[in-house]
Structures
1.
Amino acid sequence: MKIPPLVIGDYSFPIPLVVGGMGVRISGPKLVAAVLNAKCLGTLTTMCLGDMTRPMTKSEFVATSREALQREIATLRAHTDRPFAVNIMGALSNADDLIITAVEAGARIIVYGAGIPRTLPAVVEDRHVALVPVISSARLAELILKLWKRYDRVPDAFIIEGPLAGGHLGFSFEQLEHAEDFSLEKILAETLRIVRPYERADRKIPLIAAGGVYTGDDIGRLLSLGASAVQMGTRFVATAECPVADTFKQAYINARTEDIRIIKTPVGMPGRVLANTFLDRLEHGKIPEPVCSFHCIGSCERDKAGFCIAERLVNSFEGRTEEGLIFCGANVARINRIMSVQELVDELMTGLSTHP
């Protein structure tokens, strides 16, 4: 199979592979730089980058987050001059400030998830900055296309996350019990029909398929179904350049299919995680009161849930995996070793090149 480039707005990437913005702090400069240098698109995360160990006012939280993102982007740009993406969670109380900070610091692609980007084109008026919403249904794609008519603009791409993705999921618990009815392939086909009337002869709206992508053959199958690229996350956690602690990576290597859980997080969404001591203690009400520096997500019910999700994700990132949440994709149990980003990309592209 001939490997097509991924074109998003003004930017082209030789390999049709995006590595998603994984929080908290997982998709940091070292991992993103390695992905970019492997000729793929890397996405920098913005979630909980600063020091979140002390209570803060809203203005302190905004300033701390902004300064941390500026440092992350400066570090990344010191290692590569390739265009990169920055992921923003729309549910964050400081989402717009992070978007503006990212663009001013040099981000050329803004990926917007965990919310509906109703006014994103007004926040980013520069049309040389590509805007990429994350969706989990064709219906949401259609809504965004209609909302953006007032700005005379369409998304430069959509990322479609299916029910096998890691971390927070854009599906109800009931839908996840019947995941086959909401498969990535079905959503992709429906979204292709939705976007076609909005495309121009000289510019398509690429669809990037995410969730459950593991092999080069998976990539080839999704490209043959009309995707322009795929997004991956879980496999890139198990790389030498990923900044998470070794105990986090080892949890992936040790994972079995029966260890995967779907839980309700404090923000009210399902999340795919690995079973551990923390989940067991949470179930039995044996964890301490949550430590939370600032109520960063308006919908978060940290007191009712009994924990702060940012605190628990940071614990895992830093290696205290038995005191944290370990987000993962549905195929985590297939991981059995650590490799470099380049080695992984080479393996995926070899599999893609042999796809019929």
2.
Amino acid sequence: MISHTLEGHTAVIVIDNPPANTWTPESLRALEALVRELDADRSVYAAVITGAGEKFFSAGADLKKFAGDKVHARHFIACFGQAFEALMNARFVTVAAINGYAMGGGLECCLACDLRIAEAHAQMALPEPAVGLLPAGCGTQNLPGLVGEGWAKRMILTNERVDAATALRIGLVEEVVEKGRGREAALALASRVATLSPRAVEYCKGLIHNARNAVPRRAGLALERERFMDLFDHGDQLEGVNAFLEKRAPAWKND
């Protein structure tokens, strides 16, 4: 239900569970294992995640797997948290290509990514309270950071569904493209990552996340300077500067 291919330095991950690409504990564990596998492969600089087909990115959790069963529900939500936290904390850059409906846990997967590109027909929502649940795949924590508290409350507390144009306007996605062009646009964005120093990108991502995680500003600034100096322990720093001075493309070794 989770497949992947490698295109250069980019992994393409596909959620494939017809008809609506719903999540199961098995597929969430598979996603977590795959992210950790890719994280250990330093030749992977970015990943694009999308849904199979043209209608759904993912409709979220398969509710039949735990309806009314607290034990199974606890296991299911633990799988959600572990998979999406692994995605959030991945060394490489992650891009969600939202190729249709991204509902509940489907949208939470997108929120766990670094960047989001939506196709024009995409619809996004966190409707869990409508079925007596709440977004526990990191949704209540990640959404406000992107769209602000007001829009997060509109989406979660009033079950407001947003289209691609609205998502772009409120900062839920970074780009909207025509139907069928989401993966192409996401791959183009991922290819730009490969032109940068992989270790510098890794450090930058971690530093940006410090702000999200409420690390005290003084500590964050000190770590920023420390990470800058850490780059001098690796050959790509010298390669990057030399390439710039010699007016050529750098040849990253990612050592």
3.
Amino acid sequence: MNWKTELAARKVLVADGGWGTEFAKLGLPPGEAPERWTLDRPSEVRGVAAAYVRAGVDIVLTNTFGGTRLKLEKSGLGARVAEINRRAVELSREAAGTQAMVFASIGPTGEFMAPLGALSEGEVIAAFKEQIASLALAAPDGLVLETFTDLGEIRAALRAAREVSALPVAACMTFDKAASGGYATIMGVTPEQAAESLTAAGADLVGTNCGAGIATMVEVVCRLRAAAGVPLWAKPNAGLPRLVAGHTVFDETPAAMAKRVPELIAAGARVVGGCCGTTPDHIAAIARAARRAAPHAG
């Protein structure tokens, strides 16, 4: 399947929801690398993907958000980069069948690049190249760089993707409301700066994920649209997390999120889904709302 062909036909594509919060429900201990489950509990990993496919998505992701060697080494999995990334794509593909495309998830390394940290740009690019080359062996339909806050790091990941694969790439950053009233990542990158830079660097889609809830993301997408020359990807959290009796709770219901989907699409989003706290029920509601709003997408 080709994302451009599907988007041209449907006008709006639906992506999946949260993975980490679903794993937590299944018993993933705090601090344990979700990527370990790809090897040790593949049926649960496949099951999360399958639940989103049943919810009606066009795009399902993979359990590879922390799949660089730099992240996996912290959990003693550094020697299994290729195995973890390849197998994770296979599991999502098994769940998707012919019903959905598979975009492989790639998150930040968790380390600062120089001059703020010790890692050089070359070391970061090498880490992403290793992961992406492993993902590409299993032939996903695309890649999504998600939850980045450092423009230099996401550009390094995008460069790595271009050097080792021909896969389409969605490049997404996480924005929050700044004290000034505007929006920026925690590293100070504005939506306009991100959209302009990532479009120029060759991203096929540009977008935002995580952060606050869908109402905030509508505003961020408006800002991205003003500077991006490519389709926009948006996956909001189910609101801001709260800690209740030792458990993380997200308050936005499927109905509340679905109600704002037409606004998100009117703002310019052409791929819509959910991030932390969103469940298959959230995504099913979002999918229904997106299908109704798609004919009116400009």
4.
Amino acid sequence: MGKAEAAEESGSERTCIVTGWKGPPAEMLRFALSGEGEVAPDIRRRLPGRGVWTRLDAATVRQAAAKQAFARAFRAPAKAAPDLAETVDRLLEDDALQFLSMVNKAGQVVAGAFKVEGAIGAGTVIGLIQASDGAPDGAQKTERLLRARLGEAAETVSRINIFASRQLDLALGRSNVIHAALTTGEVSKAFLARAERLKQFRTGGAAQTAASVGFDASETPSG
């Protein structure tokens, strides 16, 4: 690794190999090169060797794979699978759901409309989860309760609506989960950071950044 590459890896900003956009690691995706010359997504930024970076955006990853941007960035043969963006999406989703299970074990999540309403009333909610296949009127009712309780401060509460009910069931060990609320805690913040990264990857930047929810998604909370 040359001096310029070492500086890129250790500095506070990374450069997208497709667009040239510069941003902090928490808002980008790292890729490493396997011993077989295959491009490997490194969503937790832990794989050894030199890494290259793209924006946290599915379209950008597809473009990088289609236009051989990885080979140019690594300056070596690099095989990028045509479905690389879909692989990244699945990894980000699995990572977020794994942390939702940790939130549940830490006692920082409540599920069910009645318990969610109680948490909102207590003012302890930092995130609301609505199943993507849930009825819109339930989400609207929860939203009205949140705004009535918190006013403008309701905008600081994250909204997560990217997981289907069956995914929430598995993560929380319950049946028919449609509504859930996250209460204050480090594990909750870690989950929110990961959920926001997944949202941003899918929308191309319409979600909050990991920094805005107060946690770097490459970190693992102590408890």
